[in-house]
Write a structure and sequence with these properties.
This protein has about 325 residues and is of the alpha+beta class. Helix content is about 35%, strand content about 15%. The chain has 2 domains: about 140 residues, no CATH class; about 120 residues, Butyryl-CoA Dehydrogenase, subunit A, domain 2 (Beta Barrel), CATH 2.40.110. The radius of gyration is 20 Å and the shape is globular.
């Protein structure tokens, strides 16, 4: 497969590479969740002030509205900096924000989109449960309507950045008497709500990004329901469809050199970090690594380029790009 960019795209690449080389964060990434939140949101604010926030977001919602080809150029150059592909901003920028554009109402968009783009808040995802991972529709966390509120009880697991999140995209079961895919509701949950208990999960590399989240009669306004009661499966498929486009491009591009680093990693010292910590958990900005045009990136470029050709914008067409469900 021959991959080539037009002259205008290569000119854009030079602009992106120059800006990132002059502005991307350098040095050691914080180990604490609070520290990660602070630096990640500060980086988002810097991009926002410079006009680089929301490259995939339509201009009508404050984004750059870049073409898919230019998005790919940005992601390749971003990967070249060595910055983390997933940080505290990921869910807000790539899940919650796009879902609200595609399936939310005007009030929800006005309330949340600008603060995501400005770097004011962190979002997390409340989908997976101990008994509902790959079979997401088997989830058991309940949501019962009480007046103008949804009362939520249950548990979520593997929730990244839950301990420092302001908001959560939460999927709950609101109707247990219908087939499992039909009784779910997607709701915006305020993580400061009474009855929420976040318990960090410590991983083998000493990280605490993941957490269990417990809900004990948590009250959420019905105004926070996105897409309607019992229509959450369709909304969740809209959310997950954004992962099938360009959301993980940085991870794909960084994988070949990261794999090489790991293969050389021995004992207490790493060629990338020199301090015994995994090269996957650092900002190796001092050495930007190979250019994205290197053959080392070819497999990732091919898969990502194919994704950009089949992906379209649900926010512009008013429907889910995977399930064809009307907004």
């Amino acid at each position: 497969m021959h991959l080539a960019f037009e002259e205008v795209d290569e000119s854009f690449r030079h602009e992106v590479r120059t800006w990132l080389s002059e502005n991307a964060p350098r040095g050691r990434r914080p180990r604490t969740l609070k520290g990660m939140r602070e630096v990640d949101l500060a980086w988002q604010r810097q991009q926002y002030e410079a006009g680089w926030a929301g490259i995939a977001w339509p201009e009508e919602f404050g984004g750059r509205g870049l073409s898919l080809t230019q998005q790919l150029v940005w992601q390749e150059e971003y990967a070249r900096t060595g910055l983390p592909p997933i940080d505290a901003r990921f869910v807000g920028l790539n899940h919650a924000g796009p879902t609200l554009m595609a399936r939310g109402n005007d009030a929800q968009r006005v309330r949340h989109l600008n603060e995501i783009l400005r770097g004011d808040v962190v979002w997390c995802q409340g989908f997976s449960e101990p008994e509902a991972g790959s079979d997401l529709a088997s989830l058991r966390t309940r949501g019962e309507i009480d007046g103008d509120e949804l009362v939520v009880t249950g548990q979520k697991i593997w929730t990244s950045f839950a301990a420092v999140a302001d908001w959560q995209e939460l999927l709950v079961r609101t109707n247990p008497n219908v087939p499992k895919h039909k009784g779910l509701t997607w709701v915006i949950c305020d993580m400061a709500s009474s009855g929420i208990d976040v318990r960090p999960i410590r991983t083998m590399d000493r990280g605490e990004d993941f957490a269990e989240v417990f809900y004990d009669d948590v009250r959420i306004p019905l105004a926070n329901v996105v897409g309607g009661i019992d229509r959450g499966w369709s909304v969740a498929m809209s959310t997950l469809s954004f992962e099938r486009g360009t959301a993980f491009t940085v991870s794909q591009v960084q994988l070949p050199p990261a794999s090489s680093d790991l293969s050389r990693w021995r004992g207490r010292e790493s060629p990338s970090t020199g301090d015994g910590s995994s090269p996957m958990r650092r900002w190796p900005n001092a050495s930007p690594g190979p250019a994205p045009t290197s053959p080392r990136f070819a497999p990732s470029r091919i898969s990502t380029s194919r994704a950009t050709h089949i992906r379209r914008s649900p926010a512009r067409r008013g429907q889910c790009s995977s399930c064809k469900t009307p907004n």
